[in-house]
Structure formats: structure tokens, C-alpha cells
Write a structure and sequence with these properties.
Blueprint (H helix, E strand, L loop, with lengths): L11 H10 L11 E6 L3 H4 L10 H14 L6 E6 L3 H5 L5 H4 L26 E5 L10 H7 L4 E7 L1 H14 L3 E10 L3 H14 L2 E3 L1 H8 L11
Parallel strand pairs: 1-2, 1-4, 2-3, 4-5, 5-6
Helix pairs in contact: 3-9, 7-8
Length: about 230
Amino acid sequence: MPVDDHHGLHGAQTDAVYDRAGFGATVPRGQSPALVVVDLTRGFTEPGFPSGAELTAEVTAAAALVAAARPRHVPVIYTAISYTPAEAGGDAVAWLRKAPGMRALREGSEAVALDPRLDRRDGDHLVLKKGASAFHGTGLAALLTGLGADTVLVCGATTSGCVRATAVDAVQSGFNTLVVREACGDRARGPHEAALFDLHAKYADVIGLEDAVAYLGAVDRAGRRVS
């Protein structure tokens, strides 16, 4: 996967070290994918919010993935961070001690609303979470199992935070995992590139939007690959 050389993430020496360690094998692509759109809420996708950034391109790419999933009845699962007033104002959530800016993501607020440019429909699923991973403390693994998913396509924000944590936990939960490069965004380029590099080496295939759309288009309504 190409990354920016000036971040020190790519080069012959790095490639040799990772090859020697046995990283970077290709992830199998199963017959029953599901799409997990991580935290593309207004608090992350709009720069007017303290925790937000300009993620128009990434939201547009995620919307393209959703559109590709619809005709083949691939499940679409959105996630959002949402805290009760007690959680946001108290000391019970350990992550908020390290990242107090997340306290603004209160249930019912504009910050936790899904980006309106995304096409959320009644049949889609919404997973509310308290931490970085969409799996930790939620029923996402059970939901994916119940949906018969064997492969998870992950996109969203932020690449170095909730996307990375979700992709790692997807693998640890037994799912083949693909991360869609153009549909992932972060507040800074360095952490974004570093996260994609690490994910591609150890946990997932980081793939392009065109590749992801083609894969979604190659499954039929029952989730089986089209020959």
C-alpha cells in the first residue's frame, strides 16, 4: 500500500523488516460482506465542531460504498459515539479523562447525528458506543454473526482512532477485514497514513474505493459471490 515517504513509513528497509516478520498477506474476501461506517457523525465530519475536520471527500466515498451495497442487500451498519449527560459530565468513562474533548458527543446533540450526506435507511443498523472500537461493549460482533457476515468492510473516522480500533477488533472477532482508503479520514495526514500502513501490514487489506465497489457488486442478494 503506498504511503508518504516523508513520514518514514515506507522504503526498502521497512519493507524488508515487515517481509521478514511475515506481515502483509492478502485477506480472503468472503461471500457475505457487511459494511461498517464508523463514526461519520457531524462532530467528526464538520470542522465547525471541536472534534471535527473537513471530511467531505471521505463522506462522499463512504456514501458511494453505501450506494454499492444497496442493490446487493449487503448490510449497512453505522456507528456513533454517544454519551449520556452523566457519562459526559462525570469520571466513569476512562477514555474521557484522556480525551476530554469527546465529552461534547452527548446523546441527542447535533454532534452525534449522522452526517446528513449519508443515506441512512430504516433497514440499516446503528451501533452506539462509548469507546474507540465499535466492538467493545456493544453487540456488533453478535449482530454481524446474526447477519451471516464473513467479511467486514470498514470506513469512517478517524483513521488512527476509531477506524483502526474497529478494524483490529473485527479481525480479533473472526471476520475478514477490508479498510477502504478513500473513505477513511483523520484530523492530520501523518496519523492517517501511519494507521493505514499498520492496518495493511498486520490486520486488514487496505483497498481502494473502486476495488471495494467492485467487490460489493460481485455478491448477489443472498450474499453469495456472482460467478
